[in-house]
Each structure stands twice: as structure tokens, then as C-alpha cells.
Amino acid sequence: MSDAAPATVSALLRGARTQVAHEDADLLLAHVLERPRGWLFAHGDDPVPAAAAAAFGQLLARRLQGEPLAYITGHRGFWRFDLAVSPATLIPRPETELLVELSLARMPQSGAHAVADLGTGSGAIALALACERPDVQVIATDVSDAALAVARGNARMLGLSKVDFRQGDWFEPLRGERLALIASNPPYIALGDAHLEQGDLRFEPAGALSSGADGLDAIRAIAGQAPRHLLAGGWLLVEHGWEQGAAVRALLAGAGLLEVATHQDLEARDRVTLGRAAN
Ligand SMILES: C[S@@+](CC[C@H](N)C(=O)[O-])C[C@H]1O[C@@H](n2cnc3c(N)ncnc32)[C@H](O)[C@@H]1O
């Protein structure tokens, strides 16, 4: 047994902040102590129990190996929620909130028609739409059962039990159905792209990231089938890479969609392309 005085909150943070980003050090210690981040700053002199300090050291080591903070803590903020994530799901990105905003602006006026989120992952897009428009039926699909288990858990946690989660390949779980709006953030990185070997992407599921030699296989499949699943005047919105705007516009226009346009994210990069079924 050691007689050494327990480390304080601020001493642990000081040490960790020399190794990882300040925010990461703070969030990891807050996670271990089960406190909000702000609590740390008012309790800098508090002693940290040895077991908690050891647990913090282990999480810090994982972060130093490059593991994403969200997988270590098990959650990530998106829209108005704190969503559970796991290595079976993509970590929701702030850029995807643009897809949610553009979708909300095009949701059906009445709740008579359903909308869908294809490739829902943690459920981020579907749950944001369902939260803002409780009158509309939201269907969320994914090919990954493990991702759907996380998404269903998030829906339960948020009390959004009306969201209808379905497993299958893109439109397969929607056979014979037509929707007022289809939103998707599909995989869109080219196989072999060097980014897949960098940062958080190394830890995220390959099936959530890459899609064929040019990264466009999923968007090709979604755009090609969308007209058979959209109501007259219904919208398709897809997120994509910042260099794919022209290619995605061509795919949507080639599928017969009208009013095809690309919207840019806060960094003025092409991010979401949308198109509309004929009336
Ligand atoms: C880029 S992630 C997006 C996850 C989530 N929508 C988000 O924005 O955080 C793409 C998702 O598409 C799913 N996916 C990949 N191929 C699919 C397919 N053929 N059919 C349905 N979903 C698929 C993956 O499992 C993954 O959850």
C-alpha cells in the first residue's frame, strides 16, 4: 500500500494535458469521475481516488494510441443529443447537421407521409428528424445489425420510440414503399484512400466509410433506386465528400431527379446534394 497523497484533479489534468489535447484530457477525466466537464474547474484541489486515477491513466493510454475519444467515452454530441456510439457505428460528424437542416426544410407539411434515413449508423439523422417532427413517421435502415442495436438504444434513451428501424441493403427494407423524403449519409470514401489510414477513420467500421473505387458506389445505388421510392415532388438528399459535388449532381440528374443542387458546409465545401422527383 502506498502512503503517497492522492493526486488532485488539477495535477492529473496538468500531466495529461502535456500528452493529449486539453479538451480530450478534460473529457476523459470527467468521464472517469462521472462529472460534467465544468465540475473539474471548480474542484481542482479535490483528491482523486487511486482507482479513478488508474482508470484515467488507462483511458489516456488508449487515446495516445489514437483511439477516438467518442469510442473511449461511448458517446458523442449531435444535434440536441448526446448519442451512444460504438465501434460498430460511425462517430456522427457536425457537418451532418447540414443534412438534417436541409431535410427539415423539405419535410412533408403534414405527417401523412413517411421519410427515411438510409444507413442510419447511431441513428443520428433519423433521431434528429423524429425529434423535430414528431408528427412524421421516420424509417431508419442500416445493413449492420450491430449499428442498428446502438441506434435503437439511442431512440429508447431519447424517448423517440416511433422511429422504425429496419435492417437491409439500402432500399431493400423499403420494397414497394414511397416516401416524401429520403436522407442519407452513406459511405463515400474511395477504397485505398490514404485518409482511411489516418486519425479516427482507422478505428471506424470500413463499411461505414468506403464505397468502391471512386467512393461513389453507395450514392450510385441510392440515386439509381430513389425515383422508385419517392412520392411525386419528394426529395432525395445525400451527404458526400467535398470533391464529389459535380459527380453526385450528375448521378442525381442522371436518375431523373429535378432541381438538383449542392449545398456547402460552414467551411464552404460541397457537402450535401439534393434533388426532387417530378410532380
Ligand atoms: C457514413 S455512415 C453514416 C452513419 C450515420 N447516418 C451518420 O451520419 O452518423 C454510413 C452508414 O451506412 C451503412 N451502410 C453501408 N452499406 C450499406 C448498405 N448497403 N445498406 C444500408 N446501409 C449501409 C453503414 O453501416 C453505416 O452505418
TrEMBL record:
InterPro entries: DNA_methylase_N6_adenine_CS, HemK-like, N5-glutamine_MTase, PrmC_N, RF_methyltr_PrmC, SAM-dependent_MTases_sf, Small_mtfrase_dom. S-adenosyl-L-methionine binds at residues 119-123, 142, 170, 185. CDD domains: AdoMet_MTases. One of its GO terms (molecular function) is nucleic acid binding. It catalyses: L-glutaminyl-[peptide chain release factor] + S-adenosyl-L-methionine = N(5)-methyl-L-glutaminyl-[peptide chain release factor] + S-adenosyl-L-homocysteine + H(+). Residues 9-74 form the Release factor glutamine methyltransferase N-terminal domain. Residues 104-190 form the Methyltransferase small domain. It is an enzyme of class 2 (transferase). Its EC number is 2.1.1.297. Substrate binds at residues 185-188. NCBIfam families: hemK_fam (TIGR00536), RF_mod_PrmC (TIGR03534). Belongs to the protein N5-glutamine methyltransferase family. PrmC subfamily. Methylates the class 1 translation termination release factors RF1/PrfA and RF2/PrfB on the glutamine residue of the universally conserved GGQ motif. This is Release factor glutamine methyltransferase. It comes from Agrilutibacter solisilvae.
